């Protein structure tokens, strides 16, 4: 169970990095349309960060057993101990998880490193499963987004995506072209 959830979590993190690049390219490719929409809506600045991260259960403090797990992880993965730097990513992930009180990630990293995990309650196991499901859902959402589709499709399909975006945001092509050719855009 833990390996499957770890793989889902890792895939989601990798996908997020790719998605961020795709999102930047999408915004560059649609920069004129964005300016046009901002002008028409009277917005001076539009937020580019519409990402919704998976809901993560936060606690005030990490339970003692998870702090012990974290310390064991650090002993194995700290850059001073891991001279070959093969576990640098795990160290960074564990540190981030501790700061964000994501005990689920700490458990998954401990499992990845074959560190004995204290017995988990049914509720904790269920939360870990749900944690994996949230990341799987997030990955699926990213891969179904306009940004993702825009960057992986052919020029023909990009045209249909562009038409869909114009329709969704109610961009009148004639008015947009007039605005684009006017001095106001320059």
Structure described in brief:
The protein is built from nine helices and no strands.
Overall description:
Mean pLDDT is 81; it is low at 43-60. This protein is mainly α and 186 residues long. The chain has 9 helices and no strands. The chain has helices at residues 2-29, 31-41, 64-77, 88-99, 103-112, 122-143, 146-152, 155-168, 173-181. The chain is elongated and about 65 Å long. The chain starts with a helix and ends in a 5-residue tail after the last helix.
Major pleated sheet: none
The residue fraction in helices comes out at 55-70%
Average predicted local confidence, pLDDT? 81
Compute the CA-based radius of gyration: 22 Å
List the helices and strands and how they pair.
Layout (H helix, E strand, L loop, with lengths): L1 H28 L1 H11 L22 H14 L10 H12 L3 H10 L9 H22 L2 H7 L2 H14 L4 H9 L5
Features of this protein?
186 residues, mainly alpha, 68% helix, elongated
């Amino acid at each position: 169970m833990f390996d499957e959830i770890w793989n889902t979590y890792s895939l989601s993190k990798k996908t997020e990095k790719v998605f961020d690049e795709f999102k930047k390219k999408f915004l560059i490719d649609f920069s004129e349309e964005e300016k046009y929409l901002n002008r028409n809506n009277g917005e001076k600045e539009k937020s580019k960060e519409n990402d919704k991260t998976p809901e993560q259960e936060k606690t005030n403090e990490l339970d003692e057993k998870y702090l012990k797990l974290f310390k064991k992880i650090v002993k194995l993965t700290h850059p001073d101990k891991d001279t070959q730097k093969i576990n640098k990513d795990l160290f960074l992930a564990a540190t981030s998880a501790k700061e964000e009180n994501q005990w689920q990630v700490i458990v998954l990293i401990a499992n990845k490193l074959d560190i004995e995990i204290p017995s988990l309650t049914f509720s904790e196991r269920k939360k870990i499963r749900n944690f994996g499901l949230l990341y799987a859902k997030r990955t699926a959402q990213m891969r179904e987004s306009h940004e993702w589709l825009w960057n992986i499709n052919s020029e023909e399909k990009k045209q249909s995506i562009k038409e869909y975006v114009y329709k969704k945001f109610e961009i009148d092509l004639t008015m947009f072209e007039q605005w684009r050719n006017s001095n106001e855009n320059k």
